[in-house]
Write a structure and sequence with these properties.
Radius of gyration: 38 Å
Strand content: 35-45%
Helix content: under 10%
Number of strands: 17
Largest sheet: 8 strands, antiparallel
Mean pLDDT: 93
Structural class: mainly beta
């Protein structure tokens, strides 16, 4: 039989190599001094029932790149903004409980009637973003007539409850709050971590409160200004 070309499918092991001869995987004896790598094209000849590799031809076996697997696709990134209106705005005084005469959000004390904790509660809507990362959070506020006309410093607090409790709200972290003159309104940025806490369900509302009872400030609630304390949460997934 005339010599044929075969393709090695493995490296030489001992005195043999596996190669495809006439479309059939075949064990081929290899000449003693011939080195064979997978992919090499061999000149083979059959003697009796055994095939023998006599030489390598053409260029060497192709070398695979270190990692020829395609890179994993990057996860899709989605972003958005969720608008969350408070389910309730209300103010609390220790000796009198929750005010029922209006829904405005007060900080401080006036005329000995008790130090207010003015609250906005956001219910469960923000939790629809569970698993998302909050990239920005803002609230809408407007100051109403009460106390000094000029801008006054307020203290913003994170509230544990997402709906109004029977007694005093549970206050958490604090930061400087909106400082507005009477009649002014603004979009106020709150810490991203606060927005994340509301999304994650570890917090449910915001409040203005200063333990000193001063300054006395009144912000519009839902009953006197429809955008009052509306929370905007910008988020990202992926």
């Amino acid at each position: 039989m005339s010599a044929l070309l075969a393709t090695a499918t493995s490296a030489k092991s001992g005195s043999t190599v596996t190669a495809v001869v006439n479309g059939i995987a075949t064990t081929v004896q290899v000449a003693r001094d011939l080195t064979v790598a997978s992919g090499d094209v061999l000149v083979v000849e059959r003697i009796g029932s055994q095939w023998f590799a006599l030489a390598r031809v053409f260029s060497g076996a192709p070398t695979a790149p270190p990692n020829d697997a395609p890179p994993a696709p990057k996860p899709a990134v989605t972003t958005g903004t969720l608008i969350v209106a408070p389910v309730e705005t209300r103010s609390y005084r220790p000796s009198y409980g929750w005010r029922t005469d209006n829904t405005d959000v007060y900080q401080g004390e006036y005329g000995g009637w008790g130090n207010h904790t003015g609250c906005a509660f956001y219910g469960r809507k923000a939790r629809s973003l569970a698993g998302a990362t909050v990239t920005k959070a803002t609230i809408r506020v407007r100051r109403l007539s009460a106390g000094t006309y000029a801008p006054q410093s307020t203290t913003l607090r994170l509230v544990t409850q997402s709906t109004r409790p029977a007694g005093a709200p549970t206050l958490g972290a604090s930061t400087a709050g909106p400082s507005l003159a009477v009649g002014d309104s603004a979009t106020f940025v709150i810490p991203d971590g606060w927005g994340q806490a509301i999304v994650d369900g570890t917090a449910g509302g915001l409040a203005v409160y200063d333990s000193s009872g001063s300054p006395y400030v009144r912000f519009a609630g839902r009953g006197s200004w429809s955008p009052a304390w509306t929370l905007s949460i910008s988020w990202r997934r992926g």
